[in-house]
Structures are given as C-alpha cells and as structure tokens.
Design goal:
mainly alpha; Methane Monooxygenase Hydroxylase, Chain G, domain 1
Amino acid sequence: MLDQKLKKRSLHRAKIIRGQIDGLIKAIEKEVYCSTLLERSLSIQRSLKSLDAYMLENHLRTHVRHQMGRKGEIDKAVQELVKVYTLSNKSR
C-alpha cells in the first residue's frame, strides 16, 4: 500500500537519480576530472538519501501505522525500523 503522493514523488526522485547515474557513467567513460566525478557521486548519494526519506515516510504513514494498530504486529514494526536504522548507520 503506497501513499499516492509519496509514490509520485519517489518515482520522480528515482528517475532523477537514474539520469544522474547515466551522467556519471558517461563522465567516467570520458575520463572527466576526478574531483568533478566525486561531486557527481556525492550528489547522487544525497539524492538517494532524499528518496530514502520518501520511502521511510510512506512506510511510517501506511505499514507502521497499520501494524501499530494490531497487537501481534507491533514487535514486527519495531524490528523492521531497528533494522533500517542499523543499516543506515553502518560504516562502509
């Protein structure tokens, strides 16, 4: 179940990221200056974080809200959020 407004924003952001990645690939193939490549890569990472925020908001507004209303699913909701939090804070 997706919030349609968040779905639209997420799809738009994902398409922008796809374009950014295509641009980065072409820049690497053309051997663009390393600093410029790093700037593009960091921009993509920021865009991915923005997409993550949309998806997390959707999850909280839909699935977690639903799970919190059902006694047997509260632990599942908490475990999912802890897993996402842990993954987002892992070092490279």
